């Protein structure tokens, strides 16, 4: 039996090819298309249609919640290699479209004067041509009339060019170009026409009957006697089935293209079918940063040089104050840290002195027992003097723990108990303080009057 699978060299070559493809894919521009605010059903559908235009280099299933801010989107876009944001929003007066370049800007804000969804464009066509294989590759970008009309027009053209990957005309594969995005600039109205087309290439120079045979759908020849009638005269075909081709769309193919009759160095016609969406855009302003920053251009507000200098000076002053506050905060943090370290060292030194004093210094002052322990000790001593017996451990728990020192010689003196009325009789529990006056030591010995209460 032969070896199964691929050889080591084939596996290495495949791994290297996959690595090159990943690097090439990461080097291409990627985009996020989403809406902000209460956009409405129409604007949300327009954002979905716009995702179809920039596919496959976009997040087709991106979901942005209401609680997500623009900073959240920017933070997510960095690790994913996203380079552009296409944001649609709606106000009470109009619909706006923002094109942002990450991570440092600029931001172009357009007003959407008119728009048409894909479903409306397709429903208006007699025969539309749109399938999923067309969206496997990015569209071909065509910019028209972006001439020397100002720096803002040049910046618009550059932004739209960077939105899609560049094309090497000497190495491009024509089979990957299935769609076309046309952006036309009108200098008079200063508006942009946004159009999206599907590309179809068909051979020319053949009769209508031959073109019909080359199509995917075979014609109906039930009324014909022979196939020669179809090839020679095109009998049975209506005039509407013939597409008007001319010099405006006929070209010589530099390479073979997928399709019947599209061969290299042969004449073929390039036909465009609009698949939507449509938009009519007007540039409002250009900002430096991502959604915020200095306004470089504004269509409606024009400021003098003195006003621009005043705005710049105010912004510099604001930045200076912000830097000053940051420095002060850093100094306060450093001072608090040093104070905390000094307090810690002081506490450790005090604890060390206390340990040394308790261990070897006999002249150290006894701090004494806590107030509660001292009070319970007095109560226990008073009970001993009044009753003549040792109190139970649960009566004064704190005082029971502090044992009294025994007599010299190590022998503990035996306590003389007071005889009761009978042998084995139960002891009378002491009365609580305040119920009756407790007898003092002398009165208890004589058995006479009661001693007054302590502290009276």
Biggest sheet architecture: 11 strands, mixed
Rg calculated over all Cα atoms: 48 Å
- DSSP strand content: 15-25%
- The tally of helices reads 11
The number of strands is: 11
Quick take:
The chain is α+β, with helices and mostly antiparallel strands. The protein has helices at residues 8-27, 41-54, 70-80, 118-124, 151-162, 208-214, 227-232, 305-360, 371-387, 397-401, 441-446; strands spanning 31-36, 84-90, 95-101, 107-116, 140-144, 179-186, 191-203, 250-252, 267-274, 278-287, 295-298.
Protein model, in words:
The protein has 456 residues and is α+β, with helices and mostly antiparallel strands. It is built from eleven helices and eleven strands. It has helices spanning 8-27, 41-54, 70-80, 118-124, 151-162, 208-214, 227-232, 305-360, 371-387, 397-401, 441-446, and strands at residues 31-36, 84-90, 95-101, 107-116, 140-144, 179-186, 191-203, 250-252, 267-274, 278-287, 295-298. Strands 1, 2, 3, 4, 5, 6, 7, 8, 9, 10 and 11 form an eleven-stranded mixed β-sheet that branches. Helix 5 (151-162) links the parallel strand 5 (140-144) and strand 6. The longest helix is centred in the last third of the chain and has 56 residues, at 305-360. The termini are far apart.
Task: Please give a handful of descriptors for the protein shown.
456 residues; alpha+beta; 11-stranded mixed beta sheet; 18% strand
């Amino acid at each position: 039996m032969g070896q199964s699978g691929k050889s080591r060299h084939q596996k290495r070559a495949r791994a290297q090819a996959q690595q090159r493809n990943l690097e090439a894919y990461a080097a291409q521009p990627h985009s996020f298309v989403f809406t902000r605010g209460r956009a409405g059903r129409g604007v949300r559908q327009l954002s979905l249609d716009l995702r179809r235009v920039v596919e496959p280099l976009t997040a087709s299933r991106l979901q942005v919640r209401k609680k997500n801010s623009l900073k959240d989107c920017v933070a997510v876009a960095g690790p994913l290699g996203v380079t552009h944001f296409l944001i649609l929003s709606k106000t009470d007066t109009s619909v706006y479209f923002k094109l942002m370049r990450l991570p440092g800007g600029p931001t172009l804000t357009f007003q959407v004067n008119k728009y048409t969804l894909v479903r409306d464009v397709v429903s208006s066509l007699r025969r539309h041509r749109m399938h999923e294989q067309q969206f496997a590759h990015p569209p071909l970008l065509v910019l028209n009339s972006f001439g020397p009309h100002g720096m803002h027009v040049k910046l618009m053209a550059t932004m739209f060019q960077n939105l899609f990957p560049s094309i090497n005309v000497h190495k491009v594969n024509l089979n990957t170009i299935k769609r076309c995005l046309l952006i036309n600039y009108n200098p008079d109205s200063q508006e942009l026409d946004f159009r999206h087309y599907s590309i179809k290439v068909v051979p020319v120079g053949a009769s209508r009957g031959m073109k019909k045979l080359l199509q995917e759908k075979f014609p109906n020849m039930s009324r014909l006697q022979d196939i020669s009638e179809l090839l020679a005269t095109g009998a049975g075909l209506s005039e509407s089935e013939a597409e008007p081709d001319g010099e405006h769309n006929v070209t010589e193919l530099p390479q073979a293209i997928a399709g019947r009759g599209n061969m290299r160095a042969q004449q073929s016609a390039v036909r465009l079918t609009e698949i939507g969406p449509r938009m009519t855009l007007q540039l409002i302003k250009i900002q430096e940063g991502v959604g915020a920053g200095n306004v470089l251009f504004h269509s409606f507000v024009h400021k003098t040089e003195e006003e621009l200098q005043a705005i710049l000076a105010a912004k510099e002053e604001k930045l200076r104050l912000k830097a000053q506050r940051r420095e002060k905060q850093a100094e306060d943090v450093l001072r608090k840290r040093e104070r905390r370290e000094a307090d810690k060292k002081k506490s450790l030194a005090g604890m060390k002195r206390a340990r040394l004093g308790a261990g070897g210094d006999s002249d150290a002052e006894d701090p004494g027992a806590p107030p509660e322990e001292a009070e319970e000790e007095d109560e226990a001593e008073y009970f001993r003097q009044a009753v003549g017996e040792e109190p139970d451990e649960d009566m004064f728990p704190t005082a029971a723990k502090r044992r009294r020192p025994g007599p010299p010689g190590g022998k503990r003196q035996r306590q003389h108990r007071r005889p009761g009325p009978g042998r084995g009789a139960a002891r009378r529990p002491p009365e609580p303080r305040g119920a009756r006056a407790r007898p003092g030591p002398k009165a208890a010995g004589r058995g006479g009057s009661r001693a007054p209460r302590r502290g009276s």
